[in-house]
Write a structure and sequence with these properties.
167 residues, mainly beta, Cathepsin D, subunit A, domain 1, two-stranded parallel sheet, 50% strand
Length: 167
């Protein structure tokens, strides 16, 4: 009896559109960063509280880049609080939540830290733990398995349809 061949890993770009359905986020642009161990979501007005004796957190998210009018309010149980070293070397105390992510019609749980990513170019950072054993990242490509939501696609990036010539 021979072992079944392992399925090939899907290739993703260094940035992709993902969903976080449990938080009500149907589309958010994420940077796939294999240099970062953990994943992080830009959140503000982060407030810790207790529900039924367990730690929870409520927070607000602007899921679209350069759009502070679209806001989503979310709550989630806290998995733990971690000391995370930022790319600038600062150590921060961040809440970690467990969320389901969707990419390429696949769903799986990931640990996600909530942080202020205001100065960063992406609202979401998907670290190597989240993509390990699922995807191969092509750093020279973007949006290999995802498309931006139509309503948020900048005009210059929309596909231009050619007008049909009268026959």
């Amino acid at each position: 009896m021979t072992a079944a061949p392992k399925p090939e890993k899907v290739v993703v770009g260094w940035r992709e559109w993902i969903a976080l359905p449990g938080l009500g986020i149907s589309a958010i642009k994420a940077k796939i960063d294999t240099g970062a161990r953990s994943s992080s979501l830009h959140a503000f007005d982060v407030e810790s509280f207790e529900r039924d004796g367990a730690p929870w957190v409520r927070f607000v998210v602007h899921p679209m880049q350069r759009d502070s009018n679209t806001t989503l309010h979310a709550e989630a149980p806290v998995l733990e609080f971690r000391h995370i070293r930022s790319s600038s070397g600062h150590i921060m105390h961040r809440p970690v939540i467990l969320v389901e992510i969707e990419l390429d019609n696949r769903r799986w749980p990931i640990e996600l830290t909530l942080a202020s990513r205001d100065e960063m170019g992406f609202r979401m950072l998907l670290g190597r733990e989240a993509v390990r054993r699922k995807f191969v990242v092509d750093p020279g490509r973007s949006y290999m398995v995802s498309m931006p939501p139509i309503s948020k696609t900048p005009v210059k990036n929309r596909i231009k349809r050619r007008k049909r010539r009268p026959e």
